[in-house]
Design a protein that fits this description.
Layout (H helix, E strand, L loop, with lengths): L5 E5 L3 H13 L3 E5 L2 H10 L4 E5 L1 E2 L2 E2 H9 L7 E5 L4 H9 L4 E4 L4 H11 L5 H7 L8 H13 L6 E4 L6 H10 L8 E5 L8 H6 L16 H4 L4 E5 L6 H13 L1 E2 L8 E2 L3 E6 L3 H6 L5 H7 L2 E4 L10 H11 L6 E2 L1 H9 L5 H15 L4 E2 L1 H4 L18 H19 L4 H8 L3 H11 L3
Parallel strand pairs: 1-2, 1-3, 3-6, 6-7, 8-13, 8-14, 9-10, 10-13, 15-16
Antiparallel strand pairs: 4-5, 11-12
Helix pairs in contact: 2-3, 14-16, 18-19, 19-20
């Protein structure tokens, strides 16, 4: 029979230790207790624990020291910290130091049980490292990303993923989920820019029957659907300020109230957010709440653009061709060189579109440079980003980048992209044909 998981409880309040010990015993778990940083470090060095729960403030130091000791072990132990109520700064510091999650005092037993269950589903590091290799590329940038994702998967800290459109932010979010303790629960992806403002509250939090006209049955929202799993907030910068306030309360209280309900219900959701915009700049301009920014941006992950890892482009191209069913198609050396030299303002999505077009145009299952139909690059002497000449080349590249950004933002809905750009659909269609954008 397998031994029961063993938990180390670290606190200098005997009453709280007794309460947690009794709660964990009812869950069939073994516990040891320590009342100081030094005693906790001694126990961690002698005994293997499946989880450590530590207070942030101890008589001889801070919980951060316990986190550091547990993380430095040959087989790292996940650590959750207990912080004073309302002290978000301590919680953020602990999560950035590598804590698995945090609880606020007074400790709510339902949240304690949910945290324990989540922590004990943690996968082994070696499994996470292996799965993270599914991100294509061997450049140093991608190796760093894979290593960081494997580490992020071992915590419950909110993660904010930044990077240009098409750089793989959602793929990174899905990997963080799949490599972590919530892999067997739901991953719910939400595009915050695609939901009408009038429907946001009911879509995120659900509603009760009769809450408004047409609400003829109770319905759960995104938070309830992701309960126990991960909620991915894509393009989070597009949330209106009114919704940002409501989201902040949910993150603080870990409870949601359906539209039309009088009672809140607890939720256990890990938040991963992403945007191609600069959130810090939006905070400065007053378009994004600073307190929400700090809640979401506990740990940041910056996805590199495709042009910043040009060495990976040939490998990525072959992977995408196989995915499209073009496994027998050959990409010649000149075509690979052109792809590696291209700036890719649309990143991986643009590469995929280019290859799909080339696959349709090529002959004898052989893709040459002409099949790619790439926009001409600036001459080497004109390659500096602030060079404005030759004028037509500069204008074409600028126009192409702006159009591709609008298409990415609208998920390639040309009618919506034309509206974003402030031009007619016919004008956009002409520009797409002139610039060779499919």
């Amino acid at each position: 029979m397998a031994a029961s998981p063993r938990i180390l409880l670290v606190d200098d309040e005997p009453d709280l230790l007794d309460l947690m010990e009794l709660t964990l015993a009812k869950m069939g778990l073994e516990t040891d207790r320590a009342i100081s940083v030094s005693e906790a470090q001694q126990r961690l060095a002698k005994t293997h624990y499946d989880l450590c729960l530590t207070d942030m403030r101890l008589t001889d130091g801070e919980g951060l020291e316990v986190i550091a000791s547990a993380s430095a072990l040959p087989k790292p132990v996940p650590v959750a910290v207990i912080t004073a109520f309302g002290n978000a700064g301590n919680a953020v510091a602990a999560l950035k130091a590598g804590a698995f999650d945090y609880l606020s005092k007074p400790v709510a037993l339902d949240q304690l049980r949910a945290l324990i269950k989540s922590a004990l589903r943690m996968p082994e590091t070696s499994q996470a490292d292996g799965s993270a290799r599914e991100l294509i590329g061997q450049s140093s940038a991608m190796q760093d990303i894979r290593t960081r994702i494997a580490k992020l998967a071992r915590t419950q800290a909110p993660v904010h993923i930044s990077g240009e459109s098409g750089s793989g932010k959602e793929l990174a979010a899905r990997l963080i989920h799949r490599l972590g303790s919530r892999a067997d629960r739901a991953f719910v992806a939400v595009n915050c820019g695609a939901i009408p403002e009038t429907l946001m509250e009911s879509e995120f939090f659900g509603y009760r029957k009769g809450a408004f006209t047409g609400a003829d049955a109770d319905r759960s929202g995104f938070f309830q659907a992701a309960d126990g799993g991960t909620l991915f907030l894509d393009e989070v910068a597009d949330l209106p300020l009114s919704m940002q306030v409501k989201l902040l309360r949910v993150l603080q209280e870990k409870k949601v109230r359906k539209v039309g309900a009088t009672q809140e219900e607890p939720i256990d959701v890990r938040i991963v957010s992403a945007t191609h915009q600069n959130l810090a700049a939006l905070v400065e301009s007053g378009r994004f709440r600073q307190d929400l920014f700090y809640r979401l941006n506990v740990i940041d992950l910056v996805m590199p653009s495709l042009r910043d890892r040009a060495d990976d482009i040939p490998v990525m191209a072959r992977f995408l061709l196989d995915k499209m069913g073009g496994g027998e198609v050959r990409l010649d050396r000149d075509a690979e060189k052109e792809l590696s030299a291209y700036a890719f303002p649309g990143n991986v999505r643009e590469l995929e579109n280019i290859l799909e077009r080339a696959l349709a145009l090529c002959e004898n299952r052989h893709i040459c440079a002409a099949d790619l139909n790439l926009a001409p690059a600036l001459p080497p002497t004109m390659a500096c980003s602030d060079t404005k000449y030759p004028l037509q080349d500069y204008l074409d590249q600028t126009e192409r980048a702006v159009i591709l950004e609008a298409l990415e933002q609208t998920r390639y809905n040309k009618t919506a992209a034309a509206r974003v750009l402030g031009v007619t659909f016919r004008s956009l269609r002409y520009r797409l044909e002139r610039l060779g954008i499919e």
